[in-house]
Amino acid sequence: MKISYSICFIHLALIMACSNPDYQSTGSLHQRVSELPAIEGKSQYLASPFVTAGDRVYLIGYQDGSFPDLGWHVTGGMGGIWGHPIKLMDGFTASIAIGNTIFCLDQAKKFINYPLANSRQFEWEQERLSINRFQFIPDGVEGVVIEYQITNNSSLLKEIKFAFTGMVDLRPTWLGERAQMIDAADVIEYNESSSSILAKDNANPWFVAFRSSLTASEFSSQTENCVTKNRVGLGKDATLIYEIYLQPGESKIIAEYIAGSYSSKESVLQTFELLKKESMNKLDQKIARYQQIDAASRLTIPDKEIEQMYRWLKYNTDWLVRDVPEQGRSISAGLPDYPWWFGADMTYTIPGILATGDHELAKSSIQLLYKLSKGENDNGRIVHEVSTNGVVFNPGNVNETAQAITMLKHYVDWTGDKELLTQLYPEVKKGIT
Prior knowledge:
2 domains, 9-stranded antiparallel sheet, Beta-galactosidase, Chain A, domain 5, single chain, 8 helices, 8-stranded antiparallel sheet, globular, 22 strands, alpha+beta
């Protein structure tokens, strides 16, 4: 198994300038999930990968808050923020400065995973500051919401400069060159009136934008102290800096919004607007959907660790759903290096998906596999491996055609969906031949 852990710029300025900078009134996203099941990571695994998953976008870094180079399909570039079939960022980082002293938020003391989000805790012991970073990705949205909560545990007023750096790297996924997706240098624009960054690949309609719930006091295009140096790719860094004052015992919440698109500026603007206005509603919707995942099937046995394992395997499966509108919606093989589709992997995964109750995911996965196979082979042969840009790497091994036929039989046994069977039966006959 391969599963491993994970319009114009003025218009953008107007949209951002009209936003309410007082994020405090909307409450804390992290608090909203605090009653959900959670698993605290072991300290010895802080320097190992995690995923914050959505079906359109996902984010992979280390549990300690850093974003090192990961993966080999795109050498060193399989981590970060992906909105397939392109990458948006190598990641992001943040820092707090008091006077000339800088504290980088990349060495978390604690990592907590929720079914649909995760958080990490940082402690600046010298200044008695606690910082929590929470992040989640809404369903069906090409964007990420990050929430920093900074708490002053001292008896002194703290004058802080908070810096957030987006490590932009707009580039195609694996095999992009076969689909005429050729990477070019990224271009950064800063709009002072809206305190927002808009980045574009210089030769393609690929965009990523980010801003905060606060108004920035400074902008920098230089590589900051807390940013990984010498990263692969043609990306660029952009940093927004904010001035914050914290009374003794006071906490402040800073929201960061990241939106991406592989098609247009208009799409980035729409996603920005949605993240800004609907983050809490989108989080509530995702919580409700995960409650349905939990309720669809349950295991009740004396061994409660196995019960927990069963529950979290269902969540983990949902983290692997890739939805690329031009291709389809399906279970993928694994993260960080296999976020696309395999014939054999899918045939092993679908029986588990059926047994845990997600029949719609099983159906859409089967439909995508047969669609991609017909487009590549048109003779019943089932493909082995396909990137999210639709490029087939291997048209299929001898086992996969037979396995796919068996998978279809399992699906019909569980669902009684003879309509799909009737639709695909001609391909089954070709496959047998």
